UniProtKB/TrEMBL annotation:
Family under the similarity heading: Belongs to the Gfo/Idh/MocA family.
Keywords: Oxidoreductase
Cited PANTHER family: OXIDOREDUCTASES (PTHR22604), TRANS-1,2-DIHYDROBENZENE-1,2-DIOL DEHYDROGENASE (PTHR22604:SF105)
Record keyword DNA-binding present: no
Domain Gfo/Idh/MocA-like oxidoreductase N-terminal span(s) in chain numbering: 4-116
Pfam family, any one: GFO_IDH_MocA_C3
Domain GFO/IDH/MocA-like oxidoreductase positions: 144-227
Taxonomic lineage of the native organism: Bacteria, Bacillati, Actinomycetota, Actinomycetes, Sporichthyales
Keyword Hydrolase appears in the UniProt entry: no
InterPro entries for this protein: Gfo/Idh/MocA-like_OxRdtase_N, Gfo/Idh/MocA_domain, GFO_IDH_MocA-like_dom, NAD(P)-bd_dom_sf
Name of protein: Gfo/Idh/MocA family protein
Length: 316
């Protein structure tokens, strides 16, 4: 087998604009089946065939791996169903509503002998990989700021529904939390946290302070503040900055500002599609080839920290 035959559960915005096109572009992947309630929308992704049933995708003998882009509350049931069907799974972030769900999914992947990867696509971007490399080498105590904010979630969007895993923390806050943990490590302490709740009961803004033996981080995610994304790290004799957009640079050139001992350097990154890099890496993994993918241990660690941020914010 030289190509992974992908089946999609869902044909929403990310599947249509982000992941679907790059499966067509990738040499090691083919878009075999798309399942969606709206058959015309499924057909618009131009798969080999379109179906109106998710179960039909999971039952298909000509599907090796499944990409899941459903609302947050649908991740656990469909991920575990896909894994039980013997399909490898790439699932949109957040992988689960809570850390215990990530642990349940991980156990199911191990039990069925298949791969599970969280589709935190920005982690495949060369600029993000470069930041991870730099931070692994920086000595001294780090001061980190990460934020992802925008205003204007539509009233009928699942992000405003608490029963469907809505809220800023589980959406944009996951980007900011994961970035902070790249610097702090996998087991930071949540020093403090606060929610600003909206009329539906979801958090419209969440702030948190994280700490570890590597330093401290200020984390912000919001659905109501002006659009902005940033990631800065400072340490004695060192600083780096990812300018806006820090997390969703897509098909555009990007830069990374680095200061060492007072000398500034700007690294430039050519335009790239991190969705494609993610799909190609996940496909390589399925094919038994060497490829970096986001480890499930990191997905679990981020989920645990997000759970703790929610707990501390709820208690404050």
């Amino acid at each position: 087998m030289t190509q992974v035959r992908w089946g999609f559960l869902g044909a929403g915005f990310i599947a249509t604009r982000g992941v679907g096109p790059v499966v067509h572009q990738a040499e090691n992947a083919v878009l075999q089946v798309v399942g969606a309630r709206d058959l015309d929308r499924a057909r618009s992704l131009e798969p080999v065939r379109a179906v109106s049933s998710y179960d039909e995708v999971l039952a298909a003998d000509d599907v090796d791996a499944v990409y899941i882009s459903l609302p947050n509350d649908a991740h656990l049931p469909w991920v575990t169903a896909a894994l039980a069907a013997g399909k490898h799974v790439l699932c949109e972030k957040p992988l689960a509503l809570h850390a215990d769900e990530v642990a349940e999914m991980t156990a199911a992947a191990q039990r069925n002998g298949v791969h599970l990867v969280e589709a935190a696509w920005n982690r495949w971007h060369p600029r993000t990989r470069r930041v991870e490399e730099l931070l692994a080498e920086v000595p001294g105590e780090l001061d980190i700021r990460t934020w992802f904010t925008f205003a204007g979630v539509p009233d009928d969007n699942y992000r405003l529904d608490p029963s469907r895993g809505g809220g800023a923390l589980l959406d944009v806050g996951v980007y900011a939390t994961a970035a902070a943990m790249v610097a702090l490590g996998h087991e930071p302490t949540v020093v403090d946290a606060a929610h600003d709740l909206g009329p539906t009961g979801v958090d419209l803004t969440t702030t948190a302070t994280l700490a570890s033996d590597r330093g401290r981080a200020s984390v912000l995610g919001s659905f109501v503040r002006p659009e902005s994304q940033g990631w800065t790290v400072t340490a004695p004799g060192f600083a780096l900055e990812l300018p806006h957009p820090a997390f969703t640079s897509w098909r555009e050139p990007s830069t990374l500002r680095i200061v060492r001992d007072g000398v500034e350097q700007v690294e430039e990154f050519a335009e790239c599609d991190a969705y494609r890099l993610m799909v190609e890496a996940a496909s390589s993994l399925v094919l038994g080839e060497d490829a970096w993918v986001l480890p499930l241990s990191e997905s679990l660690a981020v989920a645990r920290t997000v759970d703790e941020i929610a707990r501390v914010a709820g208690a404050s």
